[in-house]
Amino acid sequence: MPSKKRSSRSRKKSTRKYGQAAAKTVESAMRRKKKGTLRSGKGGKGGKVKSRQQAIAIGLSEARKKCAKVPKKKSS
């Protein structure tokens, strides 16, 4: 029987930037944005979130607070 060779490409481990917990938190934030209950600001005391990007940013910051695997913020 011929021996099967496995390519190194299929065995390569992926290094994900974001973890599963972070994805769920962002998903939850997007759901709240669509529902109209997602608010910006400390403690959700700001205005209603209107943009998709802002909702994603809030979801990622919530994930950071929960210590999920999320890259650090880019410092300006």
How would you characterize the overall build of this protein?
By secondary structure, the chain is mainly α. It has three helices and no strands. It has helices at 8-11, 20-35, 52-65. Helix 2 (20-35) packs across helix 3 (52-65). The radius of gyration is 19 Å and the shape is elongated. The mean pLDDT is 86.
Keywords:
76 residues, elongated, mainly alpha, 45% helix
- Helices, by number, come to 3
- What characteristic shape results from the CA principal axes? elongated
Percent helix, as a range, is: 40-55%
Mean pLDDT equals 86
Question: What structural category do the secondary elements indicate?
Answer: mainly alpha
How far is it from the N-terminal to the C-terminal residue, by CA? Answer: 60 Å
Q: What would you report as the Rg, rounded to the nearest angstrom? A: 19 Å
Helix-strand sequence? HHH
Residue stretches low in confidence (pLDDT < 50, at least 5 long) are: none
Query: Number of DSSP strands?
Result: 0
Strand content: under 5%
Largest sheet: none
Short description:
With 76 residues, this protein is an all-alpha fold. It has three helices and no strands.
List the helices and strands and how they pair.
Layout: H1 8-11, H2 20-35, H3 52-65
